[in-house]
Automatic annotation (TrEMBL):
This is Arylacetamide deacetylase. GO terms for biological process: positive regulation of triglyceride catabolic process. Pfam families: Abhydrolase_3. The keyword Disulfide bond applies. Residues 107-266, 314-376 form the Alpha/beta hydrolase fold-3 domain. Keywords: Disulfide bond, Hydrolase, Signal. GO terms for molecular function: deacetylase activity; serine hydrolase activity; triacylglycerol lipase activity. It comes from Pelodiscus sinensis (Chinese softshell turtle). Belongs to the 'GDXG' lipolytic enzyme family. InterPro entries: AB_hydrolase_3, AB_hydrolase_fold, Arylacetamide_deacetylase, GDXG_lipolytic_enzyme, Lipase_GDXG_put_SER_AS. Residues 1-21 form the signal peptide. The active site is at S189, D343, H373.
């Protein structure tokens, strides 16, 4: 057997190893998803290896790959697209060319990517914003906040907040012809986290007079305390966000200190002094029965108090909106929450739905069976998923009816 044949055989075996990771049975386009998952797993392994060799930070490798999906701000016959800055924070702006009889609606969009990767220029995000702007004849502001590991919490939050606060000024809204009563903040995954955090913060900011009409949280990450909820357990190895990667994203948001990641991985990172916060994320109380299945709530495990002192960010509601007290939820806008079945973050969304409803907030909740985390990312070739398109349409339709 020649060396080439041997190499080919080994390469095929390696590919097969990636491709044959279990993908849930009840999922449509299963083969496609297996290939997508194989691609993601390969990237994660390459990132691990590169980091282990000391060549690059894990997230820098992921960033390099996602940046290959960046597109220029291209205007067309229907839409003016520009990259600009709002109070020194970059944004990508989508403004429809179609005449509007009155003032337009506006959506401030915050992309996902675990506070570490992604961007408003990534093809799926660019496309989602175009579709939204076009369907609603609305102005879309897609925020380009700074990312970890170079920048940690609260920089990501502050960047987004700066943009929102700048945009919500009456003079700025007037300049873009936006109706101050029909503005929404929306985001997916880490972007949903930032959207929820911003919406809470606006309630206590007396300088902002304009109120959001809606917040949209698409499979958001909302809490740092319990990384062992039923959805974390059930979806530990599901595409495209295994628990290990989510733990890495969370810890990188606060620090590159690997000991926080390790503590989070064993769910022993919360100091006993913060035990009072656990009731805010108690899935035993907050999850509907059908999502608990046969999981048993064992209560919190505590870790060294040094984490809480060194990285107080993970106990801060601006990073973990579920940690806001009930009184801080009063007055939040109408909320659309989307959760996916095969997602470690499913319970974060479900628990916020319960908390918000208890606080009397109007919540519209869509739970998508058979969907993986990040399903809205798969709306461009070659990784189109029919479900990605359906979910995107569903969300944009809802927004069109309600904003
Ligand atoms: C612009 O809008 C028209 C009418 O809705 C549509 O037919 C056309 O495909 C759009 N152009 C682009 C580039 O999207
Ligand atoms: C969580 O809820 C369960 C069931 O209501 C309760 O027994 C338990 O004490 C709660 N634990 C915390 C930490 O809030």
């Amino acid at each position: 057997m020649g060396t080439k044949t041997l190499c080919l055989l080994l390469a095929s075996l390696l590919v097969a190893y990636y491709v044959y990771t279990p993908v849930p049975e009840n999922i449509e386009e299963r083969w496609k998803l297996m290939l997508i998952n194989a691609g993601f797993r390969t990237i994660e392994h390459v990132a691990e290896l590169t980091e282990w060799l000391g060549l690059m930070h894990y997230m820098e490798v992921l960033m390099m790959i996602t940046s290959m999906e960046y597109t220029a701000p291209v205007s067309d016959e229907n839409m003016t697209v520009t990259d600009t800055k709002f109070n020194n924070v970059p944004v990508r702006l989508f403004i429809p060319k179609k005449q509007s009889s009155g003032l337009r609606r506006a959506v401030i969009y915050i992309h996902g990517g675990g506070w570490c990767v992604g961007g408003s220029a990534m093809e799926p995000y660019d496309l989602l914003s175009r579709w939204t702007a076009s369907k609603l004849n609305a102005v879309v502001v897609s925020v380009e906040y700074r990312l970890a590991p170079k920048y940690h919490f609260p920089v990501q939050f502050e960047d987004v907040y700066t943009v929102v606060k700048f945009f919500l000024q009456n003079s700025v809204l007037a300049q873009y012809g936006v109706d101050p009563h029909r503005i929404c903040v929306s985001g997916d995954s880490a972007g949903g986290n930032l959207a929820a955090a911003v919406a809470q913060k606006l309630l206590e900011d007396l300088e902002v007079k304009v109120k959001l009409k809606i917040q949209v949280l698409l499979y958001p990450a909302l809490q740092t305390l319990d990384l062992d909820s039923p959805s974390y357990r059930d979806n530990e190895n599901k595409p495209i966000l295994p628990r290990s990667l989510m733990v890495r994203f969370w810890s990188e948001y606060f620090t590159t200190d690997i000991s926080l990641k390790e503590a989070m991985a064993s769910n022993r990172h919360v100091p006993a002094e913060s035990s009072h916060l656990f009731r805010l994320v108690n899935w035993s109380n907050l999850l509907p029965e059908e999502f608990k299945k046969d999981h048993v709530y064992v209560g919190p495990k505590y870790g060294s108090s040094r984490f809480g002192k060194k990285y107080p960010g993970f106990l801060d509601p601006r990073a973990a909106p579920l940690l806001a007290d009930d009184t801080k939820l009063l007055g939040l806008p109408m909320t659309y929450v989307l959760t996916c079945q095969h997602d470690v973050l499913r319970d974060d969304g479900l628990m916020y739905v319960s908390r918000l409803r208890e606080a009397g907030i109007e919540v519209i909740h869509d739970h998508i069976e058979g969907a993986i985390h990040g399903v809205l990312m798969f709306i461009t070739s070659p990784t189109h998923l029919a479900l990605g398109h359906r979910v995107a349409n569903k969300y944009i339709e809802w927004l069109n009816m309600n904003l």
